[in-house]
Design goal:
- With 117 residues, the chain is mainly beta.
- The chain has one domain: Jelly Rolls.
- It has one helix and nine strands.
């Protein structure tokens, strides 16, 4: 398979935790990750995290609450987008049974590549 063409039937989901899975594609400097959460709505938000990567995200399905340190919280739904600068703590809480987010990162999340092997 050409690593620059991802055909859904040829890609594999990586199970991260019960009800959370992802699959990804990347070029040399940009990574796109589909993250799917099932079993919602969640009772509490996921733990805050931060990373040196810039992130832009698109809510492809469902509803969620986005928490960004210093910016408060914002309810988002299918069709909404958000951006998180490098180093800013953030998290989500799912508000619907299924949430699917399309995340893009630069530079590449090397730890995602290492765990997807």
């Amino acid at each position: 398979m050409n690593r620059h063409v991802l055909i859904d039937s040829e890609s594999r989901w990586q199970e991260l935790a019960p009800g959370v899975r992802r699959k990804l594609i990347h070029t040399d400097h940009l990574m796109m990750v589909i993250v799917e959460f099932t079993g919602g709505p969640a009772e509490v938000p996921d733990p805050f995290h931060d990373h040196p990567h810039e992130q832009v995200s698109y809510v492809a399905e469902g509803r969620l609450m986005l928490f960004v340190e210093g910016s408060g919280e914002q309810e988002l739904q299918q069709g909404d987008m958000f951006a998180v600068p490098s180093g800013i703590p953030h998290t989500i809480q799912t508000l619907s049974p299924t949430v699917r987010i399309i995340d893009c990162f630069t530079p590449l999340r090397q730890e995602f590549l290492e765990t997807s092997k």
